[in-house]
Design brief:
The protein is 12% helix and 39% strand. By secondary structure, it is mainly beta. The chain has 2 domains: 6-42, no CATH class; 54-162, no CATH class. The strands form 2 sheets. Strands 1-2-8-4-5 form a 5-stranded antiparallel sheet, with no helix packed on it. The protein has a 3-stranded antiparallel sheet with strand order 3-7-6, with no helix packed on it. β4 (98-110) and β5 (115-119) form a beta hairpin. The chain is elongated.
Amino acid sequence: MSYGPPNTQSDFLPIYQYFPEDLSQLMVVLTDMYVSLATSINQRQVGGFSTVETLNGQFFTNQNDAQLSNGGFRKIFYINANINPGVTQTFAHGLQNITFVTAIYGGVKNTAGGIFLPLPYVDTVNVTNQVGVTVDATNVNVINGATALQINSGVIIFEYLKT
């Protein structure tokens, strides 16, 4: 095992480990294993992306009481319908008790051109090419700019806190 900057180490842990019988050598191996395990776990994001509301592994300190924290949630939404330029597609998210939004992101695809765009998409030359996403108390809204490409599919990742 080498000890260098975290970005030079592999995030993957070895599947097999030899444990020496000598106690002093065993302590070295166990210490190295712990450092590898802690480093690998701490560098990863919990990767559960589901269409069902899921805890996302992020915890936010309560702004009024540092001893309390709120667990973050994540839910994804697939865009399976065509959204023409100048059209806003709205669909119900089915969520309740949202207190704060921590992230809304994703991507869309235009099949004809084979073009992928991030969400939200900001065009620095023509603002009517932009694609936006908003979430209100009941709906997710995908706003396709007046001169934007037709959206044929996509995914929206919504992360939030709730009571």
